Amino acid sequence: MEKIKVGIVGLGRLGKVHAKNLAENVQGCQLIAACSFVQEELDYAIRELGVEETYQDYEEMVKSPTIDAVFIVSPSGFHCEQIQLAMEHGKHVFSEKPIGLDLAEIEATERVIKSRPEQVFMLGFMRRYDDSYRYAKQLVEDGELGELTLMRCYSIDPSSGMESFVKFAGASDSGGIFMDMSIHDIDLVRWFTKKEVSKVWALGKNAAYPELDKVGELETGAAMMQLENQAMAILVAGRNCHHGYHVETELIGTKGMLRVAAAPEKNLVTIMDEKGVVRACSQDFPERFREAFVNEAKEFIACIKGKRQPQVSAYDGLQSTKIALACKQSFKTNELITIENL
Question: For residue 242, which of 161, 154, 152 has the smallest C-alpha distance?
């Protein structure tokens, strides 16, 4: 079977991760095109990844007859429009999370996706493709924990990235900490429990970087959630972790509990010296979820070749965004938000 020819839009830090995987680590596809406003990023794609076609206009790229599929790794506010354009030009689409920032736009996008069932659409919730999370999911499916009653999720970025984030926040809209970071945990809550979130209450504080107050961003946020079956979830999101990149998930059930990455260990090496007994930590998301990014890209290409839809759908994107927006609203109003009222 011929290789699936892919174009990518967005070559920032995450875009480069996806682009390198498509070019080097995913069989059955060829990264043939790249789109960016930044000429240096296009030069990188040609020089380092062997890309043959470059564009500064996204619509031009998706009109190209040589491209079968697109990877969308652009800023969140562009996702809905770019998904719709690609689908309307007959391309298969992988989009990074979130699917969008506006519920009406997402619903319109979902209608476009549903109208083209022969085209594959996949959303980038890569934690579903991480080996540890998949193992935990199988334990839950097998009933090892009984009925889930509570989930606790931490997603905290390294403090080394705070200064660059402050600059980014002043120039761009990430959607806020719950949309930008907690949305992965929100997806895990829905994935593990198979239940929808009914109510949320969120809090936040800027301590080390109070200048984030001026741009409406949060350094640390937390949310308590009630699910439709009265189960609970607690989310903590932050941008100021001094030991590295801390992503941790705890599941508590009627028959037991488990934790995924209780300590964000880099590898299996333990160092014993004058500093004591030390385990190095993962320092960023490309390192921690390196294999998960590869696995989800492989699944996207396999779905195209197998003419099937992936597990992660546009509906998952809509529901996760809805919950993240409720968290944002709850923080702003200091009120308990019922999801069905959005």
Answer: 161
Q: What is the pLDDT of residue 175?
A: 80
Q: Which residues of 307-336 are buried (b: 16+ CB within 10 A; e: fewer)?
A: eeebebbbebbbbbbbbbbbbbbbbeeeee
How does pLDDT run across 68-86, given as a tens digit for each residue? 999 999 999 999 999 999 9
Start-to-end CA distance of the chain, whole Å, equals: 46
Show the domains of the chain with their CATH numbers.
Answer: 4-119 (3.40.50.720), 128-288+320-341 (3.30.360.10)
10: left (phi over 0), alpha (psi -120 to 50) or beta: left
- In whole angstroms, give the CA distance from residue 40 to residue 16: 12
Main-chain dihedrals φ then ψ at residue 144, nearest 5 degrees: -65, -30
What are the tens digits of pLDDT across the range 165-221? 887 776 666 688 999 999 999 999 999 999 999 999 999 999 998 889 888 899 999
Residue whose structure tokens are 């028959």:
255
Q: For residue 145, which amino acid is it?
A: L
Q: Using CA atoms, how far apart are residues 164 and 183, in angstroms rounded to an integer?
A: 21
CA 280 from centre of chain? 24
